[in-house]
Here is the input.
Amino acid sequence: MQTADIRHKLNLYRRKISLTAIFSFLLICPLFAQSSYAPLNQSGQDDQFLSYGFFLAGHTSSLRLKYSDAYMDPTQTQYRQIQSIMPVFSPGFSLGFLLTFRLHDQLNFLATPKVGFYEYQTDINYFRDDDFEQTGVGVRTESIITEATMVELPLIFKYKSMRFNNTRMFFTGGANPMFRTKSQDEADADPLVIKGKDVALELGMGFDFYFKFFKFSPEIRFSHGLSNIYEPATTDPEFAGAIEELRRKSITVLLNFQ
Here is the structure.
């Protein structure tokens, strides 16, 4: 019987374990809040039409890839040296400001301008017959890193539950227009070229915690790009035709202060 490699299994499921831990933290915190926050704190400015704040965020981002018909067609031989093209999740961070408009006690509209620092890693695996004969390993991997600094303006609706003591749960959803600071001419020098403009759909959940002098709102948010950002004309021709579409996706943990 084979023995299980626990370290390997933890590494394989590290993203699921991390997300489970984050959700557990967000769910457990209100239980402590109910018993600890007996006095009702007036922080957060929930009754004002317009209030301000700031946030810090960490994210892990990747690209959703769709192979081209030429790559999937077994009769086409120009890309037969490519075993696979695998986008990899990579970390990054962002920071920005909160502008909160009160539409109702349980409904807000948020404008959250921010600057995000992104890194997209794509692993291209090539067949190598000579290495396979000598070492038994028939694939070599080439990692391509595409960096982007984005100016973003998420426009978000925030639906909140009724306040219980000094805690509220909320759900968020909206759209995020984004623009890259680097010009397209500079981006064309990368091996894998993506466009500088995109719009993403964003959905999230979190909790409002009311302290004496401020409101703290941790949130986890999922983002999916709506447009194809791939530029095949200026991508490395060795693999450019094997890709049909690239779309952004990311998971972000936000720490909001208001």
DSSP finds five helices and eleven strands in the chain. Helices lie at 6-12, 14-36, 69-72, 129-135, 184-187.
